[in-house]
Structure formats: C-alpha cells, structure tokens
UniProtKB/TrEMBL annotation:
The lineage of its organism: Bacteria, Pseudomonadati, Pseudomonadota, Alphaproteobacteria, Sphingomonadales. Keywords: Signal. It holds the Pfam family SIMPL. Residues 1-21 form the signal peptide. It comes from Qipengyuania spongiae. This is SIMPL domain-containing protein. It comes from the Bacteria. The keyword Signal applies. InterPro entries: 26kDa_periplasmic_antigen, SIMPL/DUF541.
Length: 241
C-alpha cells in the first residue's frame, strides 16, 4: 500500500473520538486524511532550578549528622533571606555513610562518617542565578548542581504552537486532497496529546566546592539561553469536492 493509499480511508468512514462521558462518532461522506503534527516553540526561560547542599565528616555518626544539620540550617536560612519562598525550597536527599580508607593490599581502615543534605531550590528570577550561586557558596554550600532552566508559564507559547500546528496541518491535508483529485478539506477531529508542561535546556556541569569554605569566590557567569515547549496534535480531515 503506497503512502497516499495509507492516508486515505474509505469514503464512508466512521471516526471514533474518545470522550469523557461517552463515545462521539463523526460521520463523513468523503475519504479522510489523518495527520500527526508536532510544533515546537523556543522561549526565554522563566524558572531556574538549582541543587545545593552541605557535606560534613566526623568520627561518629551522631557528630557527623549534628554538624551537617547545623551547617544546613545556616544555608537554608540564607536561602530564605534571599527572598526565596519556603515552598520553593525542597529537601532532595539526606545521606549518612561510614567512610573507609582503602590502601593497596591492606584491609579497609575505618575513618569516620560522612553526612550530606541536599536541597532543590527554584529561582523565579533567572537573572539572579549568578548572584544566588555565589551566595550559596559564601553560606557554606559544598556542592552546587545546575542551574537547569525551564518555562513554568507556557500558556502563551503553547497557544502559538497550536495555531502554527493547525495551519501546517491544514496545508498538508490540502496537499493530499489536491493529489487525490479533491478540491478542499473539512476538519472533523482534533486531539491534543498530553505532554508535560515546560521544557528544559541542556544540563549544566555540576559545581563542586572542596575543602574549607570558599571566601570571595567570583560570581559565576550564567547564560539562560532559550528552552523549548510545544504541542502534538492529531488531525482528521474529510476531503471535499
């Protein structure tokens, strides 16, 4: 079966459209063409997500966790002092592990415990990312992951994507109709795929701070660039004479 034949269904096709309450059927008189169209829009990000935290070591598990909790509390208080809302600060991971020194041809030697606490922070002012990363380190953060840029409010961008997708689908359907000897098309069904909102750009390399707390570290340059969002729609057109 060639491409055109595959795209055209019988002249009296009945289209079944999923619905919440009941199945809706659309009766057509002419052959139909079915298309899947994806339209992507690039926009400036309005949200940056950064992971940060503190890692501490001590001879005992209790002491390692106690020191870590004190350092982490100081870091979280500083994050809130930057004007970041409490709901935008979320604990991501807490670890406590025994540490060993492995030497060649020797049994592992216990050296103490390591505790770590990581949080994920949402920054809704992406232009402040460099400033905030610098503040994290100054407050005692020993590691930073990100930033990861995305778009939270993509309503307008998705509306533009829908319009462009429909325009492109209409043109493609009209091309099929002309090739098949028909004069035009009539839109009989639209279905939009469920997609996660927002998009994310390429992940940045992690920034790892080792040793003692860094003093007067330079503010890192940050370029948000653009991120992508879009819609995928299924379109069905009836060919008309």
């Amino acid at each position: 079966m060639n491409t055109l034949a595959a795209a055209l269904l019988s002249a009296t096709a009945v289209l079944a459209v999923p619905a919440t309450a009941a199945e809706v059927q659309v009766q057509t008189q002419g052959p139909v063409v079915e298309l899947s169209v994806f339209e992507q829009i690039e926009v400036e990000p309005d949200l940056a997500t950064v992971g940060t935290g503190v890692t501490t070591k001590a001879p005992t598990a209790v002491e390692a966790l106690r020191r870590n909790s004190a350092e982490m509390e100081r870091l979280v208080q500083m994050i809130r002092a930057l004007g970041i809302a409490a709901e935008d600060i979320q604990t991501a991971r807490i670890n406590l592990n025994a540490q060993y020194d492995y030497r060649n041809n020797q049994s592992p030697r216990f050296t103490g415990y390591q505790a770590s606490n990581q949080v994920t922070v949402k920054l809704r002012e992406v232009e402040r990312v460099g400033e905030v990363l610098d503040a994290f380190v100054s407050a005692g953060a020993t590691n930073i992951n990100g930033p990861y840029f995305s778009i939270e409010n993509d309503v307008e961008a998705k509306a533009t994507a829908r319009r462009r997708a429909l325009e492109r689908g209409q043109k493609q359907a009209e091309d099929y109709a002309r090739i098949a000897g028909y004069r035009g098309v009539r839109l009989v069904q639209v279905a939009e795929a469920i997609r996660s909102s927002g998009g994310s750009g390429p992940e940045s390399d992690a920034i790892v701070v080792t040793g003692a707390r860094v003093q007067s570290a330079p503010q890192p340059p940050v370029a948000p660039g653009v991120v992508s969002t879009g819609v995928a729609i299924a379109l069905t057109y009836e060919m008309t004479r």
